Amino acid sequence: MERTGPSRAPWRASSGTATGARGWMWREGLLVLTGLMVLADLYLVFMWVPTDATLGIVQRIFYFHVPLAWVAFLAFFLVFLGSVIHLVRGSRRWDRLAQSAAEVGVLFTTLVLVTGAIWARPVWGVWWTWDPRLTTTLILWFIYAGYLMVRAYSPSPAQGARYAAALGIVGFVDVPIVYFSVQWWRAIHPAPVVGPASEPGSLAPAMLITLVFSLVTFTLFFVVLLKERLALKATEEALGEARELARRSTTDTRSSR
């Protein structure tokens, strides 16, 4: 009687199941951690940090406005990086990252403009003014909204990816322009309080702690959104390939008849 060894198929199945379970647990853990940090951030912003003596309660939007801008800059850096690697290597994975980051970046830039207008109305007396910082931020929004439109309306996905990659690389030039605009031109927008252009001690300790916590929280929130969009993008591409395969199979069947 022939002796048979243990089958490898169950081992592979259990390994894949274990990997999927670990991935699910990691994803759920990240969502829970992000949710807890958001709740803690809201407590710090509205309950713990002192009210600004000059601007009053409206200053609290600063703890959302600045992190939103930081995350938008981070998203567009990933667009820049993914676009460069896609053009050099032709990598669909990096192109997928660039497109997903652009979508999330446009969302956060929209929120930057909205929160900025909410802050400007009681402080400056207007919803909008053509300040250098505001103007360059609006230009940034148009650049990456254009990036998404190029991808959506190109004759083919491959051509759209190449054209959009070029726009994503060139458009990133506007990111440092937005940041340094208040130093380069006369502006009424407040000077930066974080980053290389900020002055030491520009924020009280409690305000700095709250801002840093908000920056970390929004960065984690960005990671969650980006991962979800990447997963959705991969599913969309797989579904598109399956539909194309089914269409070709139907066409071949009809031709054979």
How would you summarize what this structure contains?
Helices cover 78% and strands 0% of the residues. The chain is mainly alpha-helical.
- Would you tell me the structural class of the helices and strands? mainly alpha
Number of helices in the DSSP assignment: 7
Query: In CATH, what is the class?
Result: Mainly Alpha
Gyration radius, in Å: 24 Å
Beta-strand segment tally:
0
Q: Outline, from the CA principal axes?
A: globular
CATH architecture: Up-down Bundle
- Contiguous low-pLDDT stretches (5 residues minimum) are 1-15
Overall mean pLDDT:
86
CATH topology: Four Helix Bundle (Hemerythrin (Met), subunit A)
Number of domains: 1
Helix content: over 70%
Pattern of helices and strands: HHHHHHH
Percent strand equals under 5%
* First and last CA, distance: 50 Å
Structure notes:
This protein has 257 residues and is an all-alpha fold. The protein has a single domain (9-245), classed as Four Helix Bundle (Hemerythrin (Met), subunit A), CATH 1.20.120. The chain has 7 helices and no strands. It has helices spanning 9-48, 62-89, 92-124, 132-153, 157-171, 174-184, 205-256. Helix 2 (62-89) packs across helix 5 (157-171), helix 2 packs across helix 7 and helix 4 runs antiparallel to helix 6. The longest helix has 52 residues, at 205-256. It is globular and about 80 Å long.
Supply database-style keywords.
mainly alpha; Four Helix Bundle (Hemerythrin (Met), subunit A); disordered N terminus
